[in-house]
Amino acid sequence: MTTTSRLIAFLFICFSFASKGQNPEIKKKNNSKTEWVLANLLHEKSNNVEINGKPQIVASPYGEAISFNGTDDAFFLNELPLQSLQEFTVEMIFKPELNGLFEQRILHIGESTKDRMLLEIRAVGNNWYFDGYAASGTNKKALIDEKLIHPLEQWYHVAFVVTPKSLTTFVNGKQELQEDFSFLPIQSGQTSIGVRMNKVCWFKGAIYKIRITPKQVNPIDFMSFIK
């Protein structure tokens, strides 16, 4: 083998090794958790975050949280943390408050009207009930039961678990609803917090933290939450 041939072979091996070494990093990034402490989104003033209205920092039992006024406060993030995920768990620590709209969209990830996932509530009198919503192709499902009510003006942990075959909702670690659902990964869109992507159904209350895990999480491994 000539010197030139050896050099070409050496460079080929190095290139192949480097290429293989990149894949685990990409895979690791795509399978890492996404965590938003809402107060940090306000403090950091990232170019990826558009702030609508004047959401305020408030105290919570867990640290600084963000208060949404129910009329024009929201965050719009140029991020799609659910992209290509076949299953995931979305958790949120929040406090829904009195005098909000009946229908409130708190977290919206994906497209405005196509493939998407939402955490929602319905407020009736002094109470609320949970709604975990997913749209995947022609399949759409809202996990909601008006009998599963909870008092407003308290802090809660909610979770929405999505797998290729099912949807499941939890409130304070207790399973509420589960239904079969054929889910395909969301591939496009963005994220809104505090309102639906098209600026309807505003949320009134406070949010401390949102966490997205790219797998089905058991209740024992949910975010730490003390009521």
Describe the structure.
With 227 residues, the chain is α+β, with helices and mostly antiparallel strands. The chain folds into two domains: 1-30; 33-221, Jelly Rolls (Sandwich), CATH 2.60.120.200. Helix content is 15%, strand content 47%. The strands form two sheets. Strands 1, 3, 4, 6, 11, 12, 13 and 15 form an eight-stranded antiparallel beta sheet that branches. A seven-stranded antiparallel beta sheet has the order 2-5-14-7-8-9-10, with no helix packed on it. It is globular.
Sheet with the most strands, sense and barrel status: 8 strands, antiparallel
Give the helix/strand class.
alpha+beta
By CATH, the topology of the largest domain is: Jelly Rolls
The number of distinct structural domains comes to 2
The average pLDDT score comes to 89
Supply Rg: 21 Å
Number of strands: 15
Strand-residue proportion? over 45%
Summarize the structure.
This protein has 227 residues and is α+β, with helices and mostly antiparallel strands. The chain contains two helices and 15 strands. It comes from Flavobacterium fluvii.
How do the helices and strands line up, and which of them pair or pack?
Blueprint: H1 3-30, E1 34-37, H2 38-44, E2 49-52, E3 56-60, E4 63-69, E5 74-77, E6 88-96, E7 103-110, E8 116-124, E9 127-136, E10 139-151, E11 156-162, E12 166-171, E13 174-180, E14 190-193, E15 204-213
Antiparallel strand pairs: 1-15, 2-5, 3-4, 4-15, 5-14, 6-11, 6-15, 7-8, 7-14, 8-9, 9-10, 11-12, 12-13
Can you give keywords for this protein?
7-stranded antiparallel sheet, 227 residues, Jelly Rolls, 8-stranded antiparallel sheet, alpha+beta, 15% helix
